[in-house]
Amino acid sequence: MFSYIFSFIVLLGFWIVLSGHFHTLLIVLALLSSLIVVYLTNDLFFPNKKVNIRLLLKIFLYIPFLLKEIISSNIQVLKIIFKKDIKNTISPIMVEFKPKVKSDIGVTLLGNSITLTPGTVTIFASDKQFLVHAVDKDFESGIYSLQEKVKEVEKVV
């Protein structure tokens, strides 16, 4: 039961924060849609019906690091875009590596984090191999720093 309530509160809060409007109709729609989504997807988020508070805390602490990486990658991409001779400036690469993360949560978090970071896209992700396209070879170090942080998050799984 706690997982249903927790999911409902998170979804409703997310809706309200993103909406920014507090009209009666919107609040009612937010309540209804949050209830429906929680009912239909709760087993996807909490398959064993237990909420791992330590994991949620680690993920919330991971978000500022990810935002910092996204901002620094944005700056790197902007520098590349504003160079006059862009064809000779960039050297796209495919980075293949064996990940240090092993759980489904770790693989998913790492793959999504890499794709969210500008200049990199996860092509293939599993617990045995990752394949990532990077706009330039300078982005490779960011991939490995993301992996180390996700490995810290994964320790509580």
Keywords:
157 residues; mainly alpha; 3-stranded antiparallel β-sheet; 6 helices; 3 strands; 64% helix; 10% strand; globular
| Widest sheet, order of strands | 1-3-2
Low-pLDDT sequence parts: none
Please tally the β strands and state the result: 3
Alpha-carbon Rg, integer? 19 Å
**Percent helix range:** 55-70%
Class per helix and strand makeup: mainly alpha
Percentage of β-strand residues: 5-15%
- The N- and C-terminal alpha carbons lie at a distance of 21 Å
- Total number of helices: 6
Largest beta sheet, briefly? 3 strands, antiparallel
Mean pLDDT: 89
H and E order = HHHHEHEEH
* Molecular shape: globular
Describe the structure.
This protein is mostly helical and 157 residues long. The protein is 64% helix and 10% strand. A three-stranded antiparallel β-sheet has the order 1-3-2, with helices on one face.
Write the layout of secondary structure elements.
Layout: H1 2-19, H2 24-45, H3 53-81, H4 86-89, E1 93-97, H5 104-116, E2 120-125, E3 130-134, H6 140-154
Antiparallel strand pairs: 1-3, 2-3
Helix pairs in contact: 1-2, 3-6, 5-6
